[in-house]
Amino acid sequence: MRIGGFQPFTLSDFPGCVAAIVFTQGCNFRCSYCHNPGLLCHLPETDTLIPEETILGYLQGRSGRVQGVAITGGEPTIQPDLPLFLLRLRSMGLQVKLDTNGSNPQILSQILLEGLVDYVAMDVKAPWDVYPRLTGVATDVTAIRRSMDMVLRSGVAHEFRTTRVTPLLSPQDLDRVRGQIPEGSYHRLQAFRPELAMDPGLASALAV
Predict the structure, then answer these.
(1) What mean pLDDT is reported for the chain?
(2) Contact by Cβ (8 Å): 102, 48
(3) 186-191 β-sheet, strand order
(4) CATH number (domain holding residue 88)
(5) 176 φ, ψ to 5°?
(6) For residue 168, with 0-12 CB atoms within 10 Å meaning exposed, 13-18 middle and 19 or more buried, which class applies?
(7) Predicted confidence (pLDDT) per residue in 20-32, tens digit
(8) pLDDT tens digit string along 55-101?
(9) Domain that holds residue 147
(10) Contact residues for 152 (Cβ-Cβ < 8 A; gap 6+)
(11) How far is residue 129's CA from residue 111's CA, in Å, rounded to a whole number?
């Protein structure tokens, strides 16, 4: 699996779990407000990828102290060997949290059916008709809605997340997003971090 970053310890990215974070390399969206732009390219210009065995070896050495791993990106579900990597984490007795934009229901379905995750955090970026403006690409919102339904029906602990990008989403847009969240599911509004955004113009827009 293509891994672009690793954080060995977090208390805030996996609810109720002492965890490490694995950042997958590559994303199928081009959100202008992305705060991890270095992870967007599937083939980075420099040889910065971290071997799987390095990550797994570290986690093995931290057995009993690290309880789980949060898989984020980039977009993890575009990695064809993601299920195998999750299975290897599972075999080490680790809990798994998956962050996803929901664009790949086929791989998400496999992961859920095989019981490879304990927690899913899925982005709901915008009202459905506004998605292309937020993602920067033509977006199949039908696939995203299918993923949302899969997560809901799986019984796996989950949350849906929206970044409050003030220059791009109006208060009315955020109200519409809330209307898209299934009843009973937790909806997290995330702060926008303009200093890290791929498009520096967003920070200027906030200053106006």
Answers:
(1) 93
(2) no
(3) 3-10, 19-24, 68-72, 95-100, 119-123, 157-164, 186-191
(4) 3.20.20.70
(5) -70, -35
(6) buried
(7) 999 999 999 999 9
(8) 999 999 998 899 999 999 999 999 999 999 999 999 999 999 999 99
(9) 3-207
(10) 158, 182, 185
(11) 28
| Tokens standing for residue 143 | 């696939």
The yes-or-no verdict on residue 202 having pLDDT over 90 is no
Task: Report the number of distinct structural domains present in the chain.
Answer: 1
Q: Taken in order 139, 143, 147, 148, is the CA torsion positive or negative? A: positive
3-state SS record for the chain? CCEEEEEEEECCCCCCCCEEEEEECCCCCCCCCCCCHHHCCCCCCCCCCCCHHHHHHHHHHCECCECEEEEECCCHHHCCCHHHHHHHHHHCCCEEEEEECCCCHHHHHHHHHCCCCCEEEEECCCCHHHHHHHHCCCCCHHHHHHHHHHHHHHCCEEEEEEEECCCCCCHHHHHHHHHHCCCCCEEEEEECCHHHCCCCHHHHHHHC
Give the pLDDT band (50/70/90) at residue 193.
Answer: confident
Percent of the chain surpassing pLDDT 70 = 96
Residue with token string 């847009």: 173
Is a pLDDT exceeding 90 seen at residue 151?
yes
